[in-house]
Fold this protein.
Amino acid sequence: MHGRRNHVAASCRRATMAALLMAGATATQAADAPPAVQASPSLGAHTLLTHSEGMGIAPAVTSPIDTQPTGSSLIVLNGGYAGNADKPVDSYDNRWKRMGDTVVYNGYSGAFTVSAYVVLSAKGGAGHTVTIGKRANAAGEISIPFIEVMHAGVLKDVAQNYPAPALVLTSGNVTTTGPATLVAVWWGDGPVKRMTTRPDHEFTMLDSYLTLPDNSGVQVAVAYRQVASAGTYNVSWIGSPIQGAILWLFAFQSK
């Protein structure tokens, strides 16, 4: 009996030791596991709505795009009649924040303006649309870019400026602390029906409305750039014919 009890006790000790070793190994593996990698920001879905002068309707509703359910930031800009400078409403009931002041176009006696709005960490999904009420002039010209930046919960920096007419128009600077998605928007202010403009510094054009109908419209171009590291960035637009332009540059990061 004593021998069997000793054998059982030894077996129990071995089992206990094995369990402790296994637990220690599991704890070590957990401690050594790499942290979860946070995705870098990147361009998502985008669209551009335009109404030419006298041919618009109210409300103005963008084409539907499929945005991410969570984790994206959204940009909307509204360029057109000052009386139509309404705050955007979207189909997922996000709360839009205006970026800076509404900018008044030079040379039109205050009749035309551009404003920019952003949602951080937005709600999204299939068939995402943005609506502008156009309360003052339903038929009036308007342009509305709608852009998603995925994996972006932080608007790290934003620049807005209004250079005088020139062949090359350069935005203000934005500064990032890590990987970022930069979104640039150009709004031409001249009575030009056939315009060309392109961004430099490795920016890629997304959407534009530069060849206007005879009844006119609001000229706009949207471009973006992915940057992999911290730095200070801007964008220059090379255009013809020469005119001025209202410029925006946004820098989005994941943190």
